[in-house]
Amino acid sequence: MTLVSQSAEDRGQNVSLRLIKTYPMEIILAALVLFLILMAPGFASTANILNVLRTVAMLGIIAFGMTAVIISGEIDLSVGAGVALAGCIVAWFADAYTDAIGGWSAVILGFAVALTVGFSLGYLTGRFRQWFNVPTFITTLALFAALRGVANLITGGFPLSTFPAGFDFLGGGYLFGIPFPVYIFALTFAGMHFLMKYTSFGREVYAVGGNMEAARLSGIDIWKVKALTLGLTGALTAISGTLIASQIGAGTGTTATGMELDVIAAVIIGGTSLFGGKGRIWGTLIGVLFLGCISNGMTLMNVSEYWQYVVRGGIILGAVLLNQVLERVR
């Protein structure tokens, strides 16, 4: 009986260890949620949960695209400025063409332009990497400064808020009791999860990030893959920027300041390797939810904003260290 009991206990411990190794951030997220339910007043209320989901939706839409970029071995530091630019483009078209073609027609035209600009800038960033061997870190850092400047030039440094009636629904409305941006967030997750896991393009992204030379020798157009991941992220940035402009009711060059760091943090917390070749869209979903919960929880607990930055920095470092440890254990 003793041997049988000890064997069952050993099996239980092995199962627990496998779960910890396989789903570390899921377990940490569950523990965090439990802690916040007990310690943060109002955290578990329906209104607050919906507020968290709305907040993480804007971030997550971009983070899913950034996951593909980082898996491919690149990075994009310009997404925060891209969000501001997209919102300003949509707002400018609404302001300039509402009288001529109608409010919603102007918004749709502006969104189409923002989407095209976002994709084109991302795609050209990838090609710039190919043609001139300039790291995307440098190129997107330049765009980080330039795009926010362009956004302010478009608006003249002032918020533009000439939107048609009902435009605020996109970022601030509810559909069947759930914030509308959450539906876009869920669709983006489903689309990116399918793209990365079940398509040849997704397999090529992993191959390029894992070993670029081996991918090239196997016939993969490595630079096209990298350019497309960056272009896709640029397009998703335009979508998020339009939703944020709708939510705040204006296009302004100061929108989404520092958002690029939160996007990258969510991807890293979700287990994607900064060296490329490894990562999951599911992991990024966990990272986004983790960041949203901890930020909301600290606010509800009246933690100083300055301490919130310290905590978030510690979390990013901790996530990187945890992933390194787990890689060695596996």
TrEMBL record:
The chain crosses the membrane at residues 27-46, 52-70, 100-124, 131-154, 174-195, 281-300, 306-326. GO terms for molecular function: transmembrane transporter activity. Keywords: Cell membrane, Membrane, Transmembrane, Transmembrane helix. One of its GO terms (cellular component) is plasma membrane. It is found in: Cell membrane. CDD domains: TM_PBP1_transp_AraH_like (cd06579). It is a multi-pass membrane protein. Signal peptide: none annotated. The keyword Lipid metabolism does not apply. InterPro entries: ABC_transp_permease. This is ABC transporter permease.
